[in-house]
Amino acid sequence: MSDEMNSTAELAAGNFIFDFIKEDIAEGGMYEGKTVHTRFPPEPNGYLHIGHAKAICVDFGMAEKFGGLCNLRMDDTNPTKEDVEYVDAIKEDIAWLGFKWDDRFYFASEYFDRMYDYAVELIKKGLAYVCELSPEQMRENRGDLTNPAVSPYRDRPIEESLDLFERMKNGEFEDGKMTLRAKIDLASGNFNMRDPVIYRINRLHHHRTGDKWCIYPMYDFAHPLEDAIEGITHSLCTLEFEDHRPLYDWVIKNTSVPSVPRQIEFARLGINNTVMSKRKLRQLVEENYVNGWDDPRMPTLCGLRRRGYTPASIRNFCERIGVAKTNSVVDYGFLEHCLREDLNENAARAMVVLHPVKLVITNYPEGKSESFQIENNPNRPEDGTRTITFSRECYIESEDFIEEKIKGYNRLYPGNEVRLKSAYIVKCTGCKKDDQGNITEVYAEYDPETRGGDTPDGRKVRGTIHWVDAENYVDCEVRLYENLFDDPEPDTGDKNFLDHINPNSLTVLHNCKAERSVSDNASAADNGAPVSYQFMRLGYFCTDKDSTPEHLVFNRCVSLKDGYKKKK
Ligand code: ATP
Ligand code: MG
């Protein structure tokens, strides 16, 4: 990890949200003695992504740190594109990360009646009015930094607004014909306070309330009410809501809500080489640039899960990037680093050959076979050992043989000795080629004195390569991934992210050769959860959901190379 990352990690340990909440519940604070209560409020219009994971870790994590509670609330006040599929997927992803909401699962749409009543309360107090400006007219009348907004319906009598608002609700007016606006300050330097619209007419079918409503509350009005109704003490949200906080506080102050939540903003997570807006992710799915929301190249939580990410690696990532008040972009490599650390510790080792060529040990007796016991995971002796077999023929990576020596190459070439990992030292004697000049077999002789890979005379053998017994292996399919986008910022300025999709983001290899242990374990895990391995010298891999005992399929989670470790 780089020094920069180290200091971020330290900052995160005592972050500013933690400090604010601590002050609030301390003696004399605004929530003295109260239980800390947060919420995670996704809009169910897409699958959760790694950015949401950060918010989830902040919302649920902060409650956890204070022994408090966190609600899961579907923010479904905007009735477009909401879908049961998304609701279920959101729950699955949060549960997978390891957070619990118990029975505190809500839909914001459950509060539509109460929100309506709070709007009526504002009208009665002279703090809201029905406005008949069209959206265009409203924009024209918004004013600028030196001129206040103009709002011709502002002084309409309370009785008239009450009557019109009720008739808006009853469906007497067309969509967009009228709005309800909060009466705040037309000259405010904060444009969100220039009599913002809090209700609009919109004849849209709602996935839960059906056609009951033809008016819907605006987010800035609805969100503080949702928080207050649920007794949220701290409403943690992303930075773009900072300028909306005065309106949030205004709504709380001027309605008779049962509690007073405090909004605290933190920076959004951005990661390079990917996009993170649900709309764009949906476009990738719907236009078939990827194979579904859970495509292992997607930054969605279900995509990362299928890619082999563990809940611990993601939570650890979120903890270490910390929370800050300025938006920044985290290197994708750091997310990979967190996964690599976890899998290095916990994944079983296996030997798999991706681009096989046969190696024939010409002095090894035909028909003979022997076996070796090797540790499943050198970092976890408690995980025991596995058996691998060795015989006269094995598969090696085609790139582990060259016909003529080149400087710095320590693997197989005629005359050179190499260690077949954990088995024997072999000396290359040549190869056979087909009519097109392709190498079809490589030949070597083994040294029977080197069983286990050690040289009794202490001679140096520089190269060690992995191999798989050609008499005892399983065929498998392996999918290699690169970044979905070849531009680090596919999404900035006037770029169209679709123009920057990496054409090499997926490579499918067939007929890869895996040691037998891999098929035993992979089919043992029948609960569908990916089983992860370190394929020696190649990286970390996990079983894909397409994998069956008859046809094994592995995804490469991440390569072995680690930019972050090197910097250290
Ligand atoms: P998107 O732009 O991806 O659709 P959103 O903010 O509209 O995101 P919501 O479903 O409204 O998505 O988000 C639920 C919560 O997750 C919000 O509190 C939001 O602030 C937070 N969130 C969304 N994206 C990020 C991110 N990149 N980093 C941190 N928090 C995020
Ligand atoms: Mg949103």
Record the SSE blueprint.
Blueprint lengths: L2 H11 L2 H10 L11 E4 L9 H16 L3 E6 L9 H14 L7 E3 L4 H13 L3 E4 L3 H6 L17 H12 L9 E4 L14 E5 L13 E3 L1 H11 L4 E5 L6 H10 L7 E5 L2 E3 L6 H9 L14 H7 L3 H11 L6 E3 L1 H15 L1 E3 L1 E2 L2 E6 L7 E7 L9 E7 L1 E5 L19 E4 L4 E9 L5 E8 L16 E3 L2 E2 L4 E8 L24 E9 L2 H8 L7 E4 L3 E5 L8 E7 L4 H5 L1
Parallel strand pairs: 1-2, 2-3, 8-9, 10-11, 12-25, 14-20, 18-21, 23-27
Antiparallel strand pairs: 4-5, 5-6, 6-7, 13-24, 14-17, 15-16, 17-22, 18-19, 19-20, 23-24, 25-26, 26-27
The chain binds adenosine-5'-triphosphate and magnesium ion.
The site of adenosine-5'-triphosphate has 14 residues, from helix 3 and strand 8.
Write a brief structural summary.
By secondary structure, this protein is an alpha/beta fold.
Can you characterise this structure?
The structure is a single chain. It is elongated and about 100 Å long. It is built from 15 helices and 27 strands. Residues 1-13 have low confidence and may be disordered. With 568 residues, the chain is α/β, with parallel strands linked by helices. Helices cover 28% and strands 24% of the residues. The chain has a domain at 350-474: Ribosomal Protein L25, Chain P. A hairpin with a 5-residue loop joins strand 19 (425-433) and strand 20 (439-446). It has a seven-stranded mixed beta sheet with strand order 12-25-26-27-23-24-13, with helices on both faces. Bound molecules: adenosine-5'-triphosphate (ATP) and magnesium ion. The site of adenosine-5'-triphosphate (ATP) has 14 residues, from helix 3 and strand 8.
